[in-house]
Design brief:
Layout (H helix, E strand, L loop, with lengths): L5 H26 L4 H23 L10 H26 L2 H8 L2 H13 L5 H17 L8 H24 L8 H23 L14 H26 L1 H6 L4 H11 L7 H17 L11
Helix pairs in contact: 1-3, 1-4, 1-9, 1-11, 2-3, 2-8, 2-9, 3-4, 3-7, 3-8, 4-11, 5-7, 6-12, 8-9
Length: about 300
């Protein structure tokens, strides 16, 4: 069956927005010191409202079968709940959007291991070589001038939490994507995620004036995160995996650090040493090689 180009256009837009999300998150959580749970909760609520509006406008059926309620609760627990905790705190602790994007780009590799472990899928030698290449590349890319600080390494650990949460999200999503539309899945995902984050928001808000998030200079990156990176990117992602499979969609995760690094460089946020550039090249090459034989493990991402 001939595959339409639309899923590929959708996944390219998803990865583009996700690549930019690291920069917008760093601007809010790092530069402007917005409390992390305040940022995530407001982003989730805006995304949930946006997806609800889209659902009503498109006449999307939102009713879910009772047997799938647990799967939706689990889906939202992995992502956005665990994923955004790891990603947002990780970006704030490392203070590097590009480093964060590079670690997140390991998601397809981790999920490939999950595929081998849980589904006994055979992986081609070239794919295994790509996995092994990411190890020395990751070591090189985390060697920074502040890499000796405990906060920095705590940030690395949190980003790895995001990686494993995303892997679990993809495995859970596989059970829902054939029965529900991308819009319906994302509407419930962000709605449930908002409920998960509400207690943390109330506990961490303190005296922070939430209204400042809706004023300059915070409003632009906030809306970009909620509308483009949540509503838009996740809808594009789910749409693409319904048509080309989760593994083929995950291949494009290798482009996330390229987007973040390029934009960060031109914005003056990042500078790179030759050693770090070598690490970046090795990780990206390894991730791409790890996906080369996708037809052998197209069960999940």
């Amino acid at each position: 069956m001939k595959t339409s180009f639309k899923p590929y256009v959708a996944i390219v837009f998803a990865e583009l927005f996700w690549g930019l999300s690291f920069i917008w998150t760093q601007q809010l959580a790092g530069t402007q010191q917005v409390p992390v749970f305040v940022l995530i909760f407001v982003r989730m609520v805006l995304a949930a409202v946006g997806m609800t509006v889209i659902s009503l406008a498109t006449g999307t059926r939102l009713k879910i079968a009772p047997k799938d309620i647990k799967l939706f609760l689990l889906l939202a627990f992995f992502e956005p709940f665990l994923y955004f905790i790891g990603e947002t705190f990780g970006i704030k602790s490392t203070n590097s959007p590009t480093l964060s994007a590079l670690i997140i780009a390991i998601i397809p590799v981790v999920t490939m291991f999950a595929d081998m472990l849980f589904y006994k899928t055979r992986i081609a030698t070239i794919a295994k070589l790509g996995v092994l290449m990411t190890v020395p590349g990751a070591v090189l890319m985390v060697i920074e001038k502040n890499s000796g600080t405990s906060v920095y390494w705590w940030g690395i650990a949190l980003l790895m939490l995001a990686v494993f949460a995303s892997c679990a999200y993809s495995i859970t999503l596989r059970k829902l994507v054939d029965r529900y539309s991308a819009i319906a899945i994302n509407t419930w995902q962000f709605g449930i995620g908002s409920v998960y984050f509400l207690p943390l928001f109330l506990l961490s808000k303190g005296d922070y004036p939430v209204v400042t998030l809706f004023q300059a200079p915070a409003i632009f990156p906030l809306l970009c995160l909620a509308i483009l990176c949540s509503c838009g990117a996740f809808t594009c992602y789910v749409f693409s995996i319904k048509h080309i499979g989760i593994t083929r969609a995950c291949i494009f995760s290798a482009t996330i650090p390229i987007v973040s690094a390029t934009v960060s460089y031109f914005m003056g946020i990042e500078t790179f040493s030759p050693l770090q550039l070598l690490g970046i090249a090795i990780v990206i090459t390894g991730v791409i090689l790890a996906q080369r034989s996708h037809q052998k493990y197209d069960v999940l991402c």
